[in-house]
C-alpha cells in the first residue's frame, strides 16, 4: 500500500486533518532529502505545537527533480521521517509521518503557478536548498512568465519581482528568504546575486528600493545527517519519499525578530537558535565536526576501515578521536567563541553522533578533497593549539596522515583532490627533505607550517613510525 491521505490512521490521520486546513505560508525551492529531514520536519513540529499553522509548497529548482515532485503529488505531500541513533547514550528509534507539505510544483511545467505563490500575501517565507552549486550567478536574459530561468538566484529574482508587481509597497509584500545551502554568508551572497539580476534586467529604481525594504535575506547554518530510507526498519506502507535522520539537529539563523515571531522554534523546545552573529556556530561545526571528520578519514582508510563507526569501534583510533577533540580542538577553539560551554556541549554531541549504529558514513566520501579540507578545517586549529599550549601532536598527525595518503604508491588510501599532484611532487626519498618541502608550501596550507613550533618534528616522527610500523602504531605512539 502506498502512503497517501487515505492510508493514514490514528494520530497521523488527525495530524493530516489539522494540517490541511492551514494555508500555504512557505515556498520551498528544493525537493531533496535534506529539507525533508530538516526544515519540513521542523515546520511539521511547529504546526503540531500550534505555534505556526502554515504549510509548504515545494518547487524543484532543476528538471532532474521532477520525479520527486510527482511522488509528492501521488502521496498527498506526505512522507515519513525515521529518527535513528543515540541521544544521551540511549538508543532512539521512531517513525513520524510529516504533514507540513501542502503542494508540489514542477517548475519546468507549472512555473506560472509558482509565480502565483509570489503574488499571494499569505506567503511569508521562502526556503531553499539547491546544493552549494545552486547559489551561483550566471547572466541570463529577462525571463517570461511561462519559462523559468535556469539558476535559483534568477528564479528568485523573477519571483520577487512578481511579488513587487502584485503587492507593491503594502505591508503584506514582505518576504523572508531563508537559504539552507552549506556556504558561508549564504543569505547575503544570494541577495547580491538577486540585486545583480535586477540590474541586468533593468527592473527599475522603485524595485531596487523595495527589495531591501521588504525582503529580508537570512544567513543560516544547518546541521543534520539525512540519508535515504533503506527499508530498515520496514514500514507498513510504501513511501518513496521517506528519509532516515539522526536525532541530533541544529539550525542557526541570523534573522530578525519578525522571523523569530513567525517561526518560534525555540519557544517549543526545538534546537533552533536566532542570533545577530552565527559565526560561533559556524566555527564550532567547522572545527569540531568537519575538522574531526577530515582528521579521521585517511587514518581510518589506511587502517583498512570503511566507516566513521568502524573508527569509533577501533580501540586505538577511537581513543585518538576523543583526545583530538577534547584535548586539542576544543581548547584551541574556546578563545575564539563567545560561549565556550556551548562549544563543549556541541563537541560531546559530535562524539556521540560518530557512534550512531544506524548511519553508514563512509570514510571515502569524507576523504574527498582531503588536502583542501585540511587547509580550512585543520590547519587554523593546529596553529591556535600550538599558540595556546605549545602542543598539537594529534592535529599534526592528522595533517601528516593526509600527506602520507598522497605519497606515491599510496593511491589506495586517498581520494581525488585538486592539489594531489602538487603534494605528491614534493615527496622525496629523504623524509626530512619531504617534510620541509611539503609543510613549507603555502599554496597547500595557506601558511608555512615549518614555522609553527613542533609541527615539522612531529610530522616526521609520525610519518616515520607509520612507514615502519603502520598507521595504527603511529597513532598509538602519540
Automatic annotation (TrEMBL):
<dbReference type="InterPro" id="IPR008927">
    <property type="entry name" value="6-PGluconate_DH-like_C_sf"/>
</dbReference>
<dbReference type="GO" id="GO:0009026">
    <property type="term" value="F:tagaturonate reductase activity"/>
</dbReference>
<dbReference type="InterPro" id="IPR036291">
    <property type="entry name" value="NAD(P)-bd_dom_sf"/>
</dbReference>
<keyword id="KW-0560">Oxidoreductase</keyword>
<dbReference type="InterPro" id="IPR013328">
    <property type="entry name" value="6PGD_dom2"/>
</dbReference>
<feature type="domain" description="Mannitol dehydrogenase C-terminal">
    <location>
        <begin position="277"/>
        <end position="457"/>
    </location>
</feature>
<protein>
    <submittedName>
        <fullName>Tagaturonate reductase</fullName>
        <ecNumber>1.1.1.58</ecNumber>
    </submittedName>
</protein>
<dbReference type="Pfam" id="PF01232">
    <property type="entry name" value="Mannitol_dh"/>
</dbReference>
<dbReference type="InterPro" id="IPR013131">
    <property type="entry name" value="Mannitol_DH_N"/>
</dbReference>
<dbReference type="InterPro" id="IPR013118">
    <property type="entry name" value="Mannitol_DH_C"/>
</dbReference>
<keyword id="KW-0520">NAD</keyword>
<feature type="domain" description="Mannitol dehydrogenase N-terminal">
    <location>
        <begin position="25"/>
        <end position="255"/>
    </location>
</feature>
<dbReference type="Pfam" id="PF08125">
    <property type="entry name" value="Mannitol_dh_C"/>
</dbReference>
Amino acid at each position: 500500500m502506498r502512503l497517501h491521505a487515505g492510508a493514514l490512521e490514528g494520530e497521523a490521520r488527525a495530524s493530516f486533518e489539522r494540517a490541511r486546513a492551514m494555508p500555504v505560508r512557505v515556498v520551498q525551492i528544493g525537493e531533496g532529502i535534506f529539507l525533508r529531514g530538516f526544515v519540513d520536519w521542523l515546520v511539521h513540529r511547529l504546526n503540531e505545537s500550534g505555534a505556526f499553522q502554515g504549510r509548504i509548497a515545494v518547487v524543484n529548482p532543476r528538471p532532474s527533480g521532477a520525479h520527486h515532485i510527482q511522488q509528492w503529488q501521488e502521496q498527498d505531500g506526505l512522507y515519513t521521517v525515521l529518527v535513528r541513533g543515540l541521544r544521551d547514550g540511549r538508543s532512539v528509534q521512531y517513525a513520524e509521518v510529516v504533514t507540513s507539505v501542502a503542494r508540489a510544483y514542477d517548475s519546468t511545467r507549472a512555473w506560472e503557478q509558482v509565480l502565483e505563490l509570489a503574488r499571494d500575501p499569505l506567503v511569508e517565507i521562502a526556503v531553499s536548498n539547491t546544493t552549494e552549486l545552486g547559489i551561483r550567478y550566471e547572466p541570463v536574459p529577462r525571463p517570461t512568465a511561462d519559462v523559468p530561468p535556469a539558476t535559483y538566484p534568477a528564479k528568485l529574482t523573477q519571483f520577487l519581482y512578481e511579488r513587487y508587481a502584485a503587492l507593491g509597497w503594502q505591508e503584506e509584500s514582505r518576504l523572508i528568504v531563508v537559504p539552507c545551502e552549506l556556504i558561508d554568508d549564504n543569505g547575503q551572497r544570494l541577495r547580491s546575486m538577486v540585486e545583480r539580476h535586477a540590474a541586468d534586467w533593468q527592473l527599475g529604481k522603485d524595485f531596487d528600493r523595495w527589495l531591501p525594504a521588504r525582503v529580508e535575506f537570512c544567513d543560516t547554518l544547518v546541521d543534520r545527517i539525512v540519508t535515504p530510507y533503506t527499508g530498515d526498519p520496514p514500514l507498513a506502507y510504501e513511501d518513496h519519499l521517506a528519509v532516515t535522520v539522526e536525532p541530533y539537529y541544529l539550525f542557526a539563523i541570523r534573522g530578525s525578530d519578525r522571523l523569530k515571531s513567525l517561526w518560534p522554534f525555540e519557544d517549543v523546545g526545538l534546537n533552533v537558535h536566532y542570533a545577530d552573529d552565527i559565526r560561533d556556530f559556524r566555527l564550532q561545526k567547522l572545527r569540531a565536526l568537519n575538522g574531526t571528520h577530515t582528521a579521521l578519514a585517511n587514518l581510518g582508510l589506511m587502517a583498512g576501515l570503511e566507516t566513521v563507526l568502524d573508527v569509533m569501534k577501533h580501540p586505538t583510533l577511537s581513543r585518538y578521536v576523543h583526545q583530538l577533540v577534547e584535548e586539542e580542538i576544543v581548547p584551541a577553539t574556546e578563545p575564539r567563541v563567545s560561549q565556550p560551554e556551548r562549544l563543549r556541549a556541541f563537541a560531546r554531541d559530535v562524539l556521540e553522533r560518530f557512534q550512531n549504529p544506524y548511519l553508514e558514513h563512509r570514510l571515502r566520501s569524507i576523504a574527498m578533497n582531503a588536502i583542501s579540507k585540511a587547509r580550512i578545517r585543520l590547519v587554523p586549529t593546529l596553529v591556535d593549539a600550538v599558540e595556546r599550549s605549545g602542543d598539537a601532536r594529534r592535529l599534526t598527525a592528522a595533517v601528516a596522515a593526509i600527506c602520507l595518503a598522497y605519497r606515491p604508491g599510496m593511491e589506495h588510501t586517498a581520494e581525488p583532490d585538486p592539489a594531489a599532484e602538487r603534494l605528491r611532487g614534493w615527496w622525496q626519498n629523504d623524509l626530512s627533505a619531504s617534510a620541509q618541502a611539503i609543510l613549507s608550501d603555502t599554496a597547500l596550507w595557506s601558511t608555512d607550517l615549518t614555522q609553527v613550533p613542533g609541527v615539522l618534528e612531529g610530522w616526521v616522527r609520525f610519518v616515520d613510525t607509520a612507514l615502519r610500523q603502520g598507521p595504527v602504531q603511529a597513532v598509538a605512539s602519540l
